[in-house]
């Protein structure tokens, strides 16, 4: 890519023309003998810094030595910036100051925020740094990724992760949109509401969803927005082996296809309990569509949840078993910690000894997932529940065995070991004792 085109997305969030001009004036005051105006290289580095890239990352993109970029910045741009913002010479301490200082004096375009205040509050998030780094790398790195989904079972922390991510990167976008699909809104209502809040120059030809969609895509091509769609599975129909849109929601497929496949400079984050074709993407390095399968928390992070719920630390030697029984699912761990407090006086050993795992709202959580399964999946859960030992695939006699096993694995309801397939403990107990 030619240098002039690098980091072009900065134009969506920053008033670049004004900035180039004002920095050129500061440069002229500092270095009157130099030709007036920022050089192309200076403009490129400025855009890179504004997008949150370090000098090392910028050097990599420009295919030049890091030292060259660092020297150029400290002899040029950093000094102009101090001048422009009325600071002392050499007071800039980190490349990160550049965006902060310029934002403080109003060079960032004002951000449009749609439903952003409807995002639920996320209390402390334990762990998940690896996942956050991965998602940020996909979204903000130099790959052309524009669509990421976070897939995982109920309570695993998808929404919490998406919100933490969105808050961490929101400054890098000139518009931010939050949309939960939990209450199954019709697509034309959703798009109508978004477009109402976007500038007037993108009025759709009609109120039909497809005209609204093409107006939206125009906007997302011209502007860099962050769109977070939570609970996509709410608009999938239940009872089928592959995740399909429910009858009145088929047009959402077009929305997701456009967001994933058409070129644009925005970023889409989707959370869903189920993965469908539009979310599948690929694991290839340059794929514009990526997904992250969210697994359980590591021991240390999960232990922080138990500690926060005030399980007595005297019982800590049993925490590992407890965490592993719930496969590190944060919501289940919170529920079970409360139950242990309330019914077992905080004694984890006694709780584990009574061998019941489906307590409190955990039943409801699995109910919700069980009801959505296809008949074949329910049949196979039943077969696996009859066996205490894992079953090899050959031993599972069912005409749709292979598809159903894959689907159940994707939903994290069953697990595979060297000897075969088995239910995770809570699902085992649920199927044995709670399914009529
Ligand atoms: N990493 C974490 N650290 C601490 N608490 C967490 C973490 N992840 C999730 N939680 C807590 O677990 C609960 C469930 O999280 P969240 O709502 O994000 O799950 P989800 O995967 O979106 O579930 P659903 O499929 O029902 O939408 C919340 O109470 C949240 O605060
Ligand atoms: Mg959620």
Automatic annotation (TrEMBL):
GO molecular function, a single term: ADP binding
Q: Which domain of life is it from?
A: Bacteria
SUPFAM superfamilies recorded: P-loop containing nucleoside triphosphate hydrolases
Q: Please list the residue ranges annotated as the AAA+ ATPase domain.
A: 144-363
Q: Which SMART domains does UniProt cross-reference here?
A: AAA
Protein name, UniProt field: NACHT domain-containing protein
The opening ranks of the lineage are: Bacteria, Bacillati, Cyanobacteriota, Cyanophyceae, Nodosilineales
């Amino acid at each position: 890519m030619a240098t002039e085109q690098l980091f072009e997305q900065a134009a969506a969030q920053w008033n670049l023309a004004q900035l180039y001009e004002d920095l050129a004036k500061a440069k002229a005051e500092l270095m009157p003998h130099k030709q007036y105006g920022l050089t192309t290289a200076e403009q490129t580095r400025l855009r890179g810094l504004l997008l949150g890239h370090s000098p090392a990352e910028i050097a990599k993109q420009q295919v030049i030595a890091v030292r060259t970029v660092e020297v150029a910045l400290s002899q040029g741009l950093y000094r102009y910036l101090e001048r422009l913002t009325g600071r002392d010479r050499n007071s800039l301490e980190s490349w990160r100051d550049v965006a902060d200082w310029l934002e403080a004096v109003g060079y960032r375009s004002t951000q449009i925020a749609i439903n952003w205040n409807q995002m639920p509050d996320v209390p402390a998030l334990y762990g998940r740094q690896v996942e956050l780094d991965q998602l940020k790398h996909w979204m903000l790195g130099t790959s052309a990724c524009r669509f990421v989904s976070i897939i995982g079972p109920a309570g695993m922390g998808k929404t919490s992760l998406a919100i933490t991510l969105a808050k961490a990167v929101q400054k890098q976008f000139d518009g931010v949109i939050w949309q939960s699909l939990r209450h199954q809104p019709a697509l034309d209502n959703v798009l109508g509401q978004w477009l109402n809040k976007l500038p007037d120059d993108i009025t759709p030809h009609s109120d039909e969803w497809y005209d609204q969609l093409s107006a939206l895509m125009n906007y997302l091509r011209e502007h860099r927005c962050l769109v977070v769609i939570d609970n996509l599975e709410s608009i999938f129909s239940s009872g089928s082996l592959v995740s399909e849109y429910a009858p009145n929601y088929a047009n959402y497929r077009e929305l997701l296809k456009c967001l994933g496949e058409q070129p644009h400079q925005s970023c889409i984050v989707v959370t869903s309990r189920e993965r469908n074709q539009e979310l599948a993407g690929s694991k290839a390095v340059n794929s514009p569509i990526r997904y992250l399968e969210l697994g359980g928390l590591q021991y240390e992070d999960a232990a922080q949840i138990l500690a926060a719920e005030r399980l007595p630390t005297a019982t800590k030697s049993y925490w590992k078993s407890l965490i592993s029984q719930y496969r590190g699912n944060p919501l289940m761990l919170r529920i079970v910690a409360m139950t242990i407090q309330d019914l077992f006086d905080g004694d984890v050993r006694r709780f584990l000894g009574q061998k019941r795992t489906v307590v409190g709202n955990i039943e409801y959580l699995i109910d919700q997932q069980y009801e959505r399964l296809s008949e074949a999946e329910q049949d196979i859960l039943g077969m696996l529940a009859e066996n205490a030992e894992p079953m090899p695939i050959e031993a599972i006699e069912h005409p749709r065995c292979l598809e159903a096993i894959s689907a159940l694995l994707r939903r994290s309801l069953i697990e595979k070991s060297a000897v075969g397939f088995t239910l995770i403990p809570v699902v085992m107990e649920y199927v044995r004792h709670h399914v009529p």
